[in-house]
Amino acid sequence: MGITNRYIKSSAVRVLENKAFEAIKAKHPNFPYPVKPKYRDDNTNALTTCIIDYINLQPNASAERINTIGQQIEHRGVKKWVKGSSKTGSSDIHACIKGKFLAIEVKCAATGDVYQRPEQLAYQKEIEIAGGLYMVANDFEQFYNWFVKQGF
Fold it and tell me: CA–CA separation, 119 vs 149, rounded Å?
């Protein structure tokens, strides 16, 4: 029987949970038993959710997930894959914080997916040349520390 690593929440994930809980209580002040949201950052999807929710909880900020892979459609019983309309190499998250554009590429360290493809590196260069911010997020603690350091 193999040993499984137990997930331990970072302090940054706990900050996100508390911030989200306070937002729920503020939005529904008369609800007597609000449920505290639970977050984790040990896979790419969960990490993406943490980052988007954290940014959207900030004043003067908005973030969204970008579907870069396209979609599967069915026409007359035949399934077909249609390429997405986003730019090749586009980041996973686009955000605007206090008027500043931010592109975030999610590369979850827990899954071992930490390297950018050449198209992603080219996209990063485009964003930075245009005056936007670009970051690669490997876990929520890293993103949180970067976010705080930026002064948002």
Answer: 28
